[in-house]
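Try this one yourself first.
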């Protein structure tokens, strides 16, 4: 968020003295101006509704929803795609939020650790909960017609079992971390922690989260089968369809008590059901 705020502030400062200011708008983040100016105001990274945040840099100070209206087409307009490592909660419109809910994780973890047939039952439960094919298989899925869906994300339900399994064994421990991974803030580990802690499970979780985001981003520019590039009209339609969803489901800021600059332990941030 600090980077967004610096960009937003910098665009508005034209050192030449000319009225050539540009404006950054992110319709999916409600109250961004206040968040940028108030130290204790922020967004819950475990209540994140949008896999890819959409925004724009525009010369039109009134285009707060990035609609790029016709009478300003000769002005400056750039689309912005923002990837923020964050996760939805169980109240989200996203299926991944339901899969990563505390209730689902707890039930699956109990099957994996407390039952004499834990391994077999755990594997069965994972197969039922996961929406992704085994690691290494192509990431393909039937295309959803965004215009006919309230939730426009055609790949958002495709989380891998590698990512889901990491959550099971890290989110519900007493301190929000499994000793091997030392990662209570996934996916908000510090750069230092992520670099020095190169456990296979943590590395795999971040890799699969990256693939999850890449599929969402790729949808704006291509088709699901082979990701063949689509025409400008289709790209424009997909952008505005997803943008309308983000305006409708904007993430609201709240007062936060940060711990070491983070939102808190992962297990504490998953809302109870």
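Now uncover the answer:
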């Amino acid at each position: 968020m600090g980077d967004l705020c610096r960009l937003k502030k910098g665009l508005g400062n034209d050192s030449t003295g000319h009225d050539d200011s540009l404006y950054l708008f992110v319709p999916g983040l409600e109250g961004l101006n206040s968040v940028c100016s108030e130290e204790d105001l922020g967004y819950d990274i475990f209540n994140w509704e949008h896999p890819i945040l959409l925004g724009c840099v525009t010369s039109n100070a009134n285009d707060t929803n990035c609609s790029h209206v016709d009478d300003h087409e000769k002005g400056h307009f750039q689309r912005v795609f923002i990837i923020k490592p964050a996760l939805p909660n169980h109240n989200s419109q996203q299926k991944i939020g339901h899969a990563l809910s505390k209730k689902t994780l707890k039930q699956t973890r109990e099957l994996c650790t407390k039952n004499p047939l834990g391994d077999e039952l755990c594997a069965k439960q994972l197969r039922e909960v996961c929406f992704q094919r085994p690691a290494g298989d192509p990431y393909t899925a039937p295309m959803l017609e965004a215009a006919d869906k309230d939730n426009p994300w055609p790949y958002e339900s495709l989380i891998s079992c590698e990512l889901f399994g990491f959550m099971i064994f890290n989110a519900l421990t007493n301190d929000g971390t499994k000793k091997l991974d030392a990662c209570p803030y996934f996916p908000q580990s510090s750069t230092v922690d992520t670099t020095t802690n190169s456990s296979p499970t943590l590395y795999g979780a971040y890799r699969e989260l990256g693939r999850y985001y890449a599929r969402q981003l790729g949808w704006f520019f291509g088709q699901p089968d082979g990701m063949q590039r689509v025409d400008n009209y289709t790209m424009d339609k997909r952008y505005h369809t997803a943008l309308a969803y983000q305006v409708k489901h904007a993430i609201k800021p709240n007062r936060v008590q940060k711990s070491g600059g983070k939102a808190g332990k992962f297990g504490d941030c998953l809302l109870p059901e």
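Discussion: Residues 141-148, 259-273 have pLDDT under 50 and may be disordered. The two ends are 28 Å apart (CA to CA).
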